[in-house]
Automatic annotation (TrEMBL):
Organism: Nitzschia inconspicua
Pfam families: tRNA-synt_2 (PF00152), WHEP-TRS (PF00458)
GO CC term (a single one): aminoacyl-tRNA synthetase multienzyme complex
Superkingdom of source: Eukaryota
Signal peptide boundaries: none
Protein name, per record: aspartate--tRNA ligase
InterPro entries in the cross-refs: Aa-tRNA-synt_II, aa-tRNA-synth_II, Asp-tRNA_synthase_2, WHEP-TRS_dom
Keywords: Aminoacyl-tRNA synthetase, ATP-binding, Cytoplasm, Ligase, Nucleotide-binding, Protein biosynthesis
First-level EC class: ligase
GO molecular function: aspartate-tRNA ligase activity; ATP binding; RNA binding
EC number: 6.1.1.12
UniProt catalytic activity: tRNA(Asp) + L-aspartate + ATP = L-aspartyl-tRNA(Asp) + AMP + diphosphate
Basic and acidic residues bias locations: 70-79, 86-106
Amino acid sequence: MTTEEELTAQIVALGEKVKQAKADKQPKEEWDPFLQEMLALKIQFKEVTGKEYGPPPKEKKAPPAPPTEASEKNKEKRAAKAAAKAAKEAEKERKRAEREAREKAKAEKLAGIGMDSFGDAPMVQSQCYTDKKWFQIDHLTPVLANDTILVRGSLQTSRSVGKGVFVVLRSTMYTVQGVCFQSNDISPEMIKYIAGLPVESIVDMEGVVTVPNQPVEACTQKMVEIQIKKFFCVVKAKKAMPFQIEDAMRPDDSKEADVGAYEANDDAAAPRKDGLPSVGLENRLNNRWVDLRTPANQGIFRIESMVGCLFRECLMEKGFIELHTPKLIKGASEGGAEVFTLDYFGEQACLSMSPQLHKQMACACSGFERVFVTGPVFRAENSNTRRHLCEFTGFDMEMVINEHYDEVLEVFSDLFIHIFDGINERCKKELEAVRAQHPFEDLKYLRPTLKLTYAEGCALLREAGIEQGDYDDLSTENEKKLGDIVREKYDTDFFFMDKYPLSVRPFYTMPDPKNPQLSNSYDFFIRGQEILSGAQRIHEPDLLEERAKAWGIDLSTIEEYVDSFRNGAQPHGGGGIGLERVVMLFLGLPNIRKASWFPRDPKRLAP
């Protein structure tokens, strides 16, 4: 058996050969066999000895012995020097701790920690429910002069002036000014704290109501001012604002068109004539939760809410009940292809583009006779215009008739007059808030509502030199022109037309008994744009199937609908209203997105 010494000698010899060959610059193929043999011997070396081949590890040198003390005197010097150094470090640490304590105390004082009059309030986690009396900002009037009040709101602005600070608090669509100046009761730290809070933070303000010498024009509560005594931040705004509320509130300096394409491009918008900052619609919609804070938007959507209230109020007084229809259906509601489809457990379904079929079943076939529906409506139309949405809120009505669809038109006329009167009477402050940013003319409407036939409307266009056939569909452009003509001729912005061509109406529309090319249908208009479409419906199943086939509708997709008329159905009619379009046109807004909480169009699916 080869010994450790023999293996070592062989490895060394081969190593020398490889080293010499490399020194002589011989090709690798000449000395590579020596290298491979040497590597194999190293493996054998480990098997024999149990250790890697190589020189033994170097022994660590012992640390040098500490120098001997030359004398007892040197030892004392070194000890004194070390003690002095330690004392110096201790003094330095003491001063650092004192400095940190002072800075912490100063920071806490500026933050109001431990203060009774200002600071960051504890997180609201429903830990207690006290008997504090809270006031709404819109209730603050001179009647409360000298009273101490407590309000909560968003910090819209804060402005330092000398040894004081002015703030504006906002709650919903109302604002009030608060004033705080340094005094025996008000510390400089409190002034700095209030002035340093981020705008749009949620704050509690307590103070005494006073009546200013001059109205506070920047606020809705012009005739009062709050002398601040306590000021606490409930929630701090932690993210930079996407735009300033003051910029978003600025009045329009030009009038946009309310028809045509919508580019969804803020860069393409014309700059303001006064050079002040503006906020584009896309930026607003991308940050809708901030944009909705402006007084104008608060007004728009409170008016929109009132429309829903007035709609229900009027119809329920007339004996209608509310119906809730499914939004997942088997086939297209109106026979069109522009629907959003989805998989329904292996079966194709779509989102309802109208509650039409179900409200007819409930009204004419189920004995409810007068029903209305409010809810979302979906249209898969790739229409990037100022007046179209892919999802909007539909207000629908359906009722049985005895003799003529004019019975339905009378209800619709009463309904809209009730809505328009209600907005004007109940939403005065909201209308003022909208008008302050988006100036508009009051809507003109007649009692009863002006009625024209489709042929009469077409004749008015032709009289004005505009080409329009009695059996051709109205273009958006011609609708607008007709609205202008009607306003000039009849002094109204609101009217309706009936007897539309049958070819441009849904399959379930009742044909005109005298002219088979016409239908018992109608549309209502505000400022030259359609806001309601309706008709007398077909209640005979055979005629219904005939009209569906004419539209190319697969009868299997509406089988249940047609069958509902085979067990006896009353004559009936109704219509569907687009809520956002009604609000848009009543307020003279240039884009339907301004009247939609969170719009959905072909290019927008968020937020």
